[in-house]
Amino acid sequence: MRAPDFWFRPAGVIAASLAPLGWVYAAATARRVAAAPDYSAPVPVICIGNINAGGTGKTPTAIAVADRLIARGMSPHFVTRGYGGSLEGPVRVDERAHKADQTGDEPLLLAAFAPTWVAKDRAAGAQAAADAGADVIILDDGFQNPSVAKDLSIVVVDGKRGFGNGRVIPAGPLREPAAVGLKRADLVMVIGGDVDVDVPKLRGTLTPLQTGMVWQDMPVLAFAGIGHPDKFFGTLRQAGVKLIQAEALADHQPLTPALMTRLESEAKLRRAQMVTTEKDAVRLPDRFRAKVLTFPVRLTCDDWDPLDQALDGLIKS
User: Fold this and answer.
1) Are the C-beta atoms of residues 155 and 50 closer than 8 Å to each other?
2) What secondary structure letter does DSSP report for 54?
3) Which of 41, 197, 206, 237 is least enclosed, having the fewest CB within 10 Å?
4) Interstrand relation of 219-224 and 297-301 (parallel, antiparallel or unpaired)
5) What's the rounded Cα separation, in Å, for the pair 153 and 55?
């Protein structure tokens, strides 16, 4: 599903009419987050979450946090529900054996950076990670889920979209009122642009990974099934590609053979190279993997100090 446009307009009849349902949703979230945790891990737990529904940049943030922990000699493990996957878990992801329809796409990407566990029951996943030797657990999402006690919560925000119209689902893009959610946050990572928050803040940018690939002037048919495809297309333009066609797909949309055959035909017709995101690439049918280029990005930050201080505090404690 794509986020409706009225979620990101200041006011409107549709949002106002749906506001009562948003109040009900917010009340249900408040009751859920007020519950006592089911499980307290024997190692620190870092939650990478958001207040908005959909993509804000949690996965690159989780990868960046893992990298900084590994640089300190730590052994972080990711724990995720594996959205879109069939496995109940807890199961450790093997990126060479598992498929996206089993684990979801994000766990396959995360598993390239640190041991990754898929578990519909986050508490069971965290326990499995701790039993397997994790000395710190990174929860991918779960900010509104109280099942695992958290030692550090990082809320990720799209700096250009912010909190949209400020309303709660279905009247707006929020899982809970922003002011309420931010009271539980220890840090906010704003990716692209800026947002005013009363919480220690980091400002990040998704920067193309230097792989030796020459993107300048490359004619490209790009497709993306992420939370905000236009952000990906904008990054491609900044890298200098000639964006011949941009296909915005639904978040986590299956890349069926029929869809990929259509995109391949259009790319050939327009003499363009098919390009997609790292997260989408793990969902490609096998026969299209060699035909599609992946455009990798990494999260960079103008000042990592607030995060580094928080991580140092966790390690010392």
Assistant:
1) yes
2) S
3) 237
4) unpaired
5) 17
Q: Which amino acid is at 137?
A: I
Please, are residues 281 and 275 in contact by the beta-carbon 8 Å criterion? no
DSSP 7: G
The pairing of strands 201-208 and 219-224 is unpaired
When computed from its CA atoms, the radius of gyration of the chain, rounded to whole angstroms, is 20
Q: Could you tell me if 116 and 76 are in contact, meaning their C-beta atoms sit under 8 angstroms apart?
A: no
Torsion over CA of 84, 85, 91 and 92, rounded to 10 degrees? -80
Single pTM value for the model:
0.89
| DSSP assignment letter at 141 | S
Phi, psi of 112 (to 5 degrees): -75, -10
**Predicted confidence (pLDDT) per residue in 233-280, tens digit:** 989 999 999 999 999 998 888 899 999 999 999 999 999 999 999 989
| CA proximity to 104, closest of 123, 119, 122, 125 | 119
Q: How far apart are the first and last CA of the chain?
A: 42
Would the CA dihedral through 97, 105, 229, 204 be positive or negative?
negative
- C-beta of residue 45 within 8 angstroms of C-beta of residue 150: yes
Q: Are 115 and 129 in contact (CB under 8 A)?
A: yes
Q: Collapse the DSSP code of 167 into the 3-class scheme (helix H, G, I; strand E, B; otherwise coil) and give the result.
A: coil
Angle formed by the axes of helices 305-316 and 58-71, nearest 10°:
60
Q: How many helices and strands in the chain, by DSSP H and E?
A: 10, 13
Produce one character per residue of 79-96: b if its CB has 16 or more CB atoms within 10 Å, e if not: bbbbbbbebebbbbbeee
